[in-house]
Structures are given as C-alpha cells and as structure tokens.
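Objective 1b. Sequence-to-structure analysis of Dihydroorotate dehydrogenase (quinone).
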Amino acid sequence: MYKRLLLPLLFRFDAEKVHYFATSTLQVAHKIPGVAALLRWLFTYRHPSLERTVFGLTFPNPVGLAAGFDKNGEWVEELSNLGFGFIEIGTVTPRPQPGNDKPRLFRLKADSGLINRMGFNNKGAGPAAGRLQFHRQRTQNPRVLIGGNIGKNKDTPNEEALTDYLLCFRDLFDAVDYFVVNVSSPNTPGLRALQEKEPLKAILGRLQGENSLKNKPKPILLKIAPDLADSQLDDIIEIVRETGIAGVIATNTTISRDGLRTPADAVTKMGAGGVSGKPVQVRSTEVIRYLHTQSNGAFPIIGVGGIQTAADAKEKLDAGATLVQVYTGFIYEGPALASKICRGLVQ
C-alpha cells in the first residue's frame, strides 16, 4: 500500500517538506493512546538469531537507521517503534547551523536514490543531548541503541576541527551508546580533507584519549566516503589499528554521478551534493569487502548504501559487515523496511 498509494502522492511535493510532514505525522499519531504499541506490534520483529553483540553493545537486531534522518534526536521515541535495532542521530555540530540554501534534497526516482547537500543543518549538540536524555527517561523500547554522529561547524577551519569534535563528544557522552566521527560528508567545504591520514589520526587519537579517561568508555567509529582509493582505505585500516577506535561505517554518500538512469540534464539541474541509495550500493559493498579482507576482519564494519531488501542487507553482511543501516531505502520502501529485512535474514 505504501509504494502503490502513499509514495506517489508524497513524491508530488518537495522532498524536504515531505520529510518533516511525515515525521510530524508520526509524532502526532504517537499522542493517540495505543498507537505506539500498535506500531511496535506491526513493525518490530524479534528473533534470537538477529541479536548481535558488537563493540561491547548488544543490538536486538542488525538493522539500524543511518544518520541524517533524525538530525536532532527529535523523533527517536517514534522511530524506535518501527523495528530498528539502533538509531543514529546527527550529524550534530557544537553550535546550531541552518545548513545550505534550499532546495537541497532531490529525488532520483529512476535510480531509487537521492541527492542531498543539506550541510549539517542541526540545532546543536547540547540540545540534542537534552532531548536524548529525556527520551531515555520515558522510552518504552529501551533495547534500541542510540548512536551520535558528530561533525564540525561549517565556519570552523579544519585546523580547529578537533575542538568541534571534542565539544560534541563531551556534550553527547551521557546521551548516546556509541559515537561516529563524520569527516566524509561532501556538503561541508573542505571536510573530506580531514580523511587524510595525519589530520584523521590526530582527531581520532585525541578523542580516544579523552574516551579512555571515562569510567565507561563509549565505542567510537569512523564514517568514510565511498570515493576513497584503495591506498586511502589501507590508511584507514592502519589508522583504526593505531588509534584503537571500535570500527568503521562504510559508506557515506558519493560525489560520483556515474551510471545514473536519471537524465543527465536533470541531474545537472539538481546541482552539487552526495548521492545515496541504489547508485552507491555496489561501491559501498566493495569498500566493505576490501576493508574486511585487507584487515583480516580486525574490526567491525557497519554497512550502509543502497539497502532496500533483505538480499541487499545480506550482501553487505556477506561482504564483511557486522551491522547494516538504511536511509534512502527507508524512504522508498516505507516504515516496514526494518521488519522485512529482519524477517528475510531469519528466513
């Protein structure tokens, strides 16, 4: 019903406006007694074989919602009732920022993909932490784990980026179960330069140093771009080993426009931004397989990119991922996606 009736209707309107309409509707629905329980019954699938213990955390199932959908931790309670094993909020920055000019989110319907140049639009790490802690106090689904995806403000020079990551880490520490360092978004000028070996080692090493002083350290992961060459992926493996971070998320969006079915003039009109969804599926799986093989499975990998079915998720898991995340597939397939993937993995 979602794909036949609702999706064509929603796709008649601006993508970003539809996003906020859908999440607001979900919030309002949860105010009706019994709706939360009904959604959990409809969309949550439990099975012992789905449970995963990864970097010291126990996930009820391996299917998570990727960062970008709930940037501010505003809908965690509602989204937790749609069958996800974990939800990653963000990317958050130390100070609020509006992001890039609108329009900044576009559909590639022929490709089951999106182009976005959101630019880390968010309300700041401190407010996000407050909302997440409020959620913890009232949640009816405590098994869903929360990740905090952190970045730097647009106007922070790369030379001072470490300070921004530390501020986010400190603000969110008591509110999330794990952290993700985002240096791979193509939508903040100069950010991807932080993926280079030396600046990345400095950021991750310092975060790990502060993390080690905590009574109960939190897992720290690195989210990387699909556009890295093999030599850069080799550097990532070395950096993970040297800094001792918990793992890698592969991958973020791509700046490539190769192989798109959407007409080239339409894509050009949409402008700059990262491509997500089916167009990045093959490359993200290649990156996962390369990291897993070259490192001899030395660290966990969360696979993301083009997952719309259980078969897509299994492809990532077979390539070496331990967990998977969805975002664009969630938009195209609807609220039952996590449950469908979980059922398919069990079968």
